[in-house]
Write a structure and sequence with these properties.
Blueprint (H helix, E strand, L loop, with lengths): L29 H17 L2 E6 L4 H9 L3 E3 L1 H10 L4 E5 L2 H10 L4 E3 L8 H4 L3 H10 L4 E5 L4 H4 L4 E3 L4 H10 L4 E4 L2 H11 L3 E3 L12 H10 L3 E5 L5 H4 L4 E2 L2 H10 L4 E5 L5 H7 L4 E4 L23 H10 L10 H18 L1
Parallel strand pairs: 1-2, 1-3, 3-4, 5-6, 5-7, 7-8, 9-10, 9-11, 11-12
Helix pairs in contact: 1-14, 3-4, 4-15, 8-9
The structure holds iron/sulfur cluster.
The site of iron/sulfur cluster has 13 residues, from helix 5.
Length: 350
């Protein structure tokens, strides 16, 4: 074969190690908890604010969001809800990219977060300048990024996807004959590639929580509970996904607990989701999929240390002081919003 026919090797960018913080979940005495809940309810009304919480936040935050007319959802639904709600202030209990997405879709609204240091290992793994260089090296590929990215990375993308819609959008692009550059989650990317058969060049990021789920530990737990269905979020490693009865987004996994007849479930995603699952199917047995434990990069498997930064104390404080506001460069907003809007339009049309 002539050397002219050889394809040059693709060099994936090196990602610095992501060190997850060690964060303890907020613990409150009953009296303080009740007083904080009263204070937050009052402040939400005074500030014309609505609380939008992710499934991985605490049961207190999830119940408060729903009791006060807000919502508990995955990142796509959080963005949709904030966009449709008339409140002038959106308080996003989740991680930073979720607050940024709320701001991108609602630039005229004030977006507050309990803690602006609540990051995400996927977002941190995809530094905007390195990502932009990688895109420049592959101009023939359409750029598809997961929602767990910064506004600057989204601004470089053609499409944003969430885990709930990634397969459908990639199938659509593959059918058009597009080759893709995917970022930042390598496990989700590999799973989408295996389902769709698309040509995908995959950025090597990972979620510290989902990457810690263990294939052999799951095999042993399945053997001990043959009656259990295995529910897996696709940010998990391939060996864990291969054992799943259902692979899906947080919303899809909650639906599976409600709809499947099994009396028990083994769940490979953040254990914050158990609150909604218990409400969806009271009486069913819910088991955490085994993870690497305290020796892994995730110090509090299976719970996201950045999600654990959200609590009632800092929520009350930001509502009182107006601190922790998400601010984005005005020029960046239309650029980063465009690929999100493309996803929302795609979802609405199907
Ligand atoms: S659970 Fe993983 S993907 Fe979700 S916010 Fe935490 S680090 Fe990011």
């Amino acid at each position: 074969m002539s050397s002219a026919t050889l394809t040059p090797p693709i060099h994936l960018p090196a990602i610095p190690p992501i060190i997850a913080p060690s964060v303890e979940e907020e613990v409150l005495e009953p009296g303080e908890r009740a007083a904080l809940l009263d204070r937050i309810r009052r402040l939400l009304k005074q500030q014309d604010a609505v609380l939008i919480a992710h499934y991985y936040t605490s049961a207190d935050l999830q119940e408060l969001a729903e009791d006060t007319g807000g919502c508990v959802a995955d990142s796509l639904e959080m963005a949709r809800f904030g966009h449709a709600h008339p409140a002038r202030t959106l308080v996003v209990a989740g991680v930073r990219f979720m607050g940024e997405t709320a701001k991108l879709l609602n630039p005229e609204k004030r977006v507050l977060m309990p803690d602006l240091h609540a990051e995400c290992s996927l977002d941190l793994s995809c530094e905007p300048e390195a990502f932009s260089r990688f895109c420049d090296e592959h101009p023939e590929r359409k750029v598809v990024v997961y929602s767990n990215t910064s506004a600057r990375v989204k601004a470089r993308a053609d499409w944003v996807v969430t885990s709930g819609i990634a397969v459908r959008i990639v199938q659509h692009l593959h059918a058009q004959g597009d080759s893709l550059l995917w970022a930042p989650d390598r496990h989700l990317g590999a799973w989408v590639q295996s389902v769709t058969g698309a040509d995908m060049l995959i950025w090597p990021g990972a979620c510290v929580v989902h990457e810690a789920f263990r294939t052999q530990g799951l095999e042993a737990l399945r053997a001990a509970h043959p009656e259990a269905a295995v529910l897996v979020h696709p940010e998990s490693p391939a060996g864990v996904i291969a054992q799943a009865d259902v692979v899906g987004s947080t919303t899809q996994l909650i639906q599976a607990v409600r709809n499947l007849p099994n009396p028990a479930f083994i769940v490979a995603t953040d254990n914050g989701i158990f609150h909604k699952m218990r409400l969806a199917a009271p009486g069913k047995l819910l088991l955490e999929a085994p993870s690497a434990g305290t020796g892994a990069t995730c110090k509090s498997c299976a719970h996201c240390p950045w999600m654990a930064m959200n609590g009632l104390r800092n929520l009350a404080q930001v509502l009182e002081t107006g601190s922790n506001e998400i601010e984005l460069d005005a020029e960046l907003i239309p650029l980063a919003r465009r690929p999100i809007q493309r996803m929302l339009d795609f979802a609405a049309a199907r």
